[in-house]
Amino acid sequence: MFSHVFLGVAEFDRALAFYRALMPVLGVQERFCNRERPWAGWQSHPGPRPLFLIGKPFDQLAHAAGNGQMVAFLAASRATVDEAYRVALASGGVSEGAPGLRPEYHANYYGAYFRDTEGNKICVACHDAPPP
User: Fold this and answer.
1) With CB atoms 3.0 to 4.6 Å apart as the test, which of 9, 90, 123, 127 could cross-link to 118 if both were Cys?
2) Is it true that domain 4-56+68-126 has CATH number 3.10.180.10?
3) Average pLDDT over residues 35-56
4) Where is pLDDT greater, at 49 or 123?
5) pLDDT for residue 21 is more than 80
C-alpha cells in the first residue's frame, strides 16, 4: 500500500542515532544514509518497499512534529514491542504509553508509544495472540 513514509527531523545526527538503534530491533535494515542532504532510509523485508525515511524537510523550513500524526511499526512479538520501547527510551525517546494490551483496539493489540528525539510520535505494535 505504501511506497514510503518520511519523517522530518531538525537534528539529523541525533535522529539518525535514534533510528539506528531502534530499527534493528524491528528487523529493518538501513538502506542508505546521505549526510549532505541530509536523509537516511530503512528498507522493509523482503523489500524494496515500503521505505521509512528521515531527513531535513524538502522545503528547507524548520521541522515541526504534527499533532495527530503517528507512524506505527509492526512487531513480530510482544517481546519485540517491549525491547523497541526500551531501546527508544534509552536512545533519547520520550514515553507516550508503556507496552501493554490495548483492548479498545482489539483483544490481542499489544503496543507501545513514544516520541523520537524530534518529537515525532511512534508506535510499535504486535497484533498476534501470545504463544500458548
Assistant:
1) 9
2) yes
3) 91
4) 123
5) yes
